[in-house]
Design brief:
116 residues, 17% strand
């Protein structure tokens, strides 16, 4: 049996917002390092750092990062955005669901709900 819990959904939303804020802060710090005139990072190194930042809390699913390289100077830059469609799906469709499992095969759905 699956049911929706608004309290669970709100807690999940708070946790996700905190995690996204931290990831955006880390991406901003990396971008600042890239803009330094002395920065000599390679694209592969930056990509590894981005992958590490986006790990967990559905970061790779929700945040789309583009690494740009200036052909003339070799200077790297990056942009990112929140995937609104993936965010809405996660927060409106998936968040707040509880699954109730029982080994009582003889119970009806109503009996399981009442026992829960």
């Amino acid at each position: 049996m699956v049911y929706q819990s608004e309290q669970l959904r709100q807690g999940q939303l708070r946790g996700l917002e905190q995690a996204l804020a931290k990831k955006f802060q880390q991406l901003h710090a990396l971008k600042e390092r890239l803009q330094s005139p002395r920065a000599r990072l390679r694209a592969a190194s930056v990509q590894r750092q981005v992958t590490q930042i986006l790990q967990g809390e559905r970061g790779q699913e929700l945040i789309k990062v583009t690494i740009l390289e200036d052909a003339a100077t070799g200077q790297l830059d990056m942009t990112w955005e929140l995937d609104d469609r993936a965010y809405r799906h996660l927060t409106e469709v998936l968040f707040g669901k509880r699954i109730v499992v029982t080994g009582r095969d003889e119970w009806s759905t109503a009996e399981i709900a009442a026992a829960y």
